Amino acid sequence: RGLLESHPLRLRPAGGAMWPGTWRKVLAGLAPGSSAALRVVKRLYCPAGKRDTIFALSSGHGKCGVAVIRTSGPASGAALQSLTGQQELPRPRAVALRRIHDPSSAETLDRGLVIWFPGPHSFTGEDCSELHVHGGPAVVGGVLQALGRLPGLRPADPGEFTKRAFQAGKLGLTEVEGLGDLIHAETEAQRRQALRQMEGELGQLYQRWSEELTKALAHVEAFIDFSEDDNLEEGVLARVDAAVQTLEEEVRGHLQDGRRGERLRGGVHVVIAGPTNAGKSSLLNLLCQRPAAIVSPVAGTTRDVVESALNIGGYPVVLSDTAGLRETQDAVEREGVSRARDRLQRADVVLAVLAAVDVAPEPGCLADALRAVLPPGALAGRAPCILVLNKADLLEEGRGGALLGACGEGALSPVCLLSCKTGEGVASLLSLLGAQLEQMCGDPLTGSPSLTQARHRLHLTSCLGSLGRYHGYKSLDLVLAAEELRLARRHLGKITGRVSAEEILDIVFRDFCVGK
């Protein structure tokens, strides 16, 4: 606190900096000497150029042809000179072939490519360097140990490179999240959505909304302060009301997207359900193309939920095999049935599996069999269903066509005949499932960008609530109405990282790997 009292901001605040009075309020709630208090003082007294220089392996662990080791910070240039033994740094952003030495022993560690990125024209906005070396564990370990022995360098924390890019204004928070999703993308659709978010489209949408709210708030506050002076144009509040109404409709429409972006990011939950011995586990193994679940002629073999991640048509799927649905006296199997019904409640798509030989080719019989698998309370109309008639290889000639015709007459779910034993019909099932996934997730490259994180939905819902309360307060107390606009803007700022983002940074960056 003594340092704070003497800080020059007390007399002359820098652009965008808090007045020390605000800092005093912050420090008042912090334990003396705590790490949080020290971070506040460090922010005031330690310029960005005095930060630690960090290093890490950025290309992932394990043997590989080429490994990329990255540094960022004020000592990056000196570190590159020490490891290459060169007095001159390479030309910026140009690849140079160099021998890489251990400065402490002068031993040659490898011969590789080096690149120099002087700040601010780098990923983090700081001086950066990259060493492209052979990817053997001994080479990588030797280079990392050599860097660790240099003064002023330390290993990077998980996500610290990206965090520095965010703090330098190189990336917004939604762009950071897009980068994280791109790193973890396993399907084409996930890659497209993540790339679009990383390039800033989602952040630009939220920033536009924030700017519209800022303008509306400025007009309301101007009306509060100057309306009695007759210096304002007529209809100022009417224009604000119209702008808020338009924004409210846009945010509501953005939220009513069927969770497309979130499903695409985390995977569509497809649940295999049906009676015992219908071939559910066989279907799981067929789609996974590996023995993921135990298959046995004994009814009730599957007790717990068995999950497997798949890529179907470029869309991510979390496929779950569940216990056969039936009444049972076995306590363990009863728990499995309970878990199966719980998983049905949370399913995005249901594959209802019936043994084709056990159902009559009549619409009423098929509907009754389907209802027995999917009772009305299980889905409540939420999730689409695909009816899979398994064991088609055991059907008499002509019976398969009769079953399909009965399904058409009864206007039942999309249906396919399948034999897990021979593989017949699997292409038809994948086509039906792929069409359903495309309908649910859409094309991530078209239309408005979708929200992808639960925290986006939380803050947008709160923003929408504040916009709704604005309309209620404006005729009662314009000051309270202005405060609701300010809260709505703050919620948008928490998504992009422009306002009050400190408390969510650790959550965002902790999922990043070291070196990214």
Write the layout of secondary structure elements.
Elements lengths: L1 H5 L13 H9 L6 H11 L7 E5 L6 E9 L3 H9 L11 E6 L6 E10 L10 E8 L1 H12 L4 E3 L4 H8 L5 H12 L3 H11 L2 H26 L9 H20 L4 H7 L1 E6 L6 H9 L17 E7 L2 E7 L9 H15 L3 E7 L7 H11 L2 H4 L5 E6 L8 H11 L5 E3 L8 H16 L12 H20 L4 H19 L5 H8 L7
Parallel strand pairs: 1-6, 7-9, 7-10, 10-11, 11-12
Antiparallel strand pairs: 1-2, 2-5, 3-4, 4-5, 8-9
Helix pairs in contact: 7-8, 9-10, 9-19, 10-18, 18-19
Descriptors:
20 helices, 6-stranded mixed beta sheet, flat, alpha/beta, 47% helix, 516 residues
Please give a structural write-up.
- This protein has helices at 2-6, 20-28, 35-45, 76-84, 137-148, 160-167, 173-184, 188-198, 201-226, 236-255, 260-266, 280-288, 331-345, 363-373, 376-379, 399-409, 426-441, 454-473, 478-496, 502-509, and strands spanning 53-57, 64-72, 96-101, 108-117, 128-135, 153-155, 268-273, 306-312, 315-321, 349-355, 385-390, 415-417.
- With 516 residues, the protein is of the alpha/beta class.
